């Protein structure tokens, strides 16, 4: 059974930092492209960042320079370090694991609220 379990969300003030983690089980983690997506109230889910099996990263323009995605294949975990958080970063953040053959797995999400 595939499980992606996100953690690390919460309430933070503007300018603050959070680190989200996603622990994967039931998949061969190292062969998956891992990613973080987010969905704000009333909006569509959008890409935050992805990291390939080789460690190449891709970021949404809105988070470039502030967020850093990383992965630990030994632990089967993907992270996103979020710095200089803004109110517009408020959303439910979802972990994603995918392969080019059309396999796509999602976590249940963790809420990040950026507010004074």
Structural class: mainly beta
- Work out the helix count: 0
Query: For the report, how would you describe the main beta sheet?
Result: 7 strands, mixed
Number of strands: 11
Give the averaged pLDDT, no decimals.
97
Rg computed from alpha carbons, rounded to a whole number of angstroms? 13 Å
Helix content: under 10%
- Distance from N terminus to C terminus (CA atoms, Å) equals 40 Å
Taken in chain order, the helices and strands follow as EEEEEEEEEEE
> DSSP strand (E) fraction?
over 45%
Shape: globular
Low confidence ranges:
none
What would you note in describing this structure?
0% of the residues lie in helices and 53% in strands. It has strands at 3-7, 10-12, 18-25, 33-39, 46-51, 57-59, 67-72, 77-82, 91-99, 103-106, 110-114. The N and C termini lie far apart (40 Å). The model has no long low-confidence stretch (mean pLDDT 97).
Keywords:
116 residues; mainly beta; 4-stranded antiparallel beta sheet; globular
How do the helices and strands line up, and which of them pair or pack?
Blueprint: E1 3-7, E2 10-12, E3 18-25, E4 33-39, E5 46-51, E6 57-59, E7 67-72, E8 77-82, E9 91-99, E10 103-106, E11 110-114
Parallel strand pairs: 2-11
Antiparallel strand pairs: 1-3, 3-8, 4-5, 4-9, 5-6, 7-8, 9-10, 9-11
Summarize the structure.
With 116 residues, the chain is mostly beta strands. The chain contains no helices and eleven strands. The strands form two sheets. Strands 2, 4, 5, 6, 9, 10 and 11 form a seven-stranded mixed β-sheet that branches. It has a four-stranded antiparallel β-sheet with strand order 1-3-8-7, with no helix packed on it.
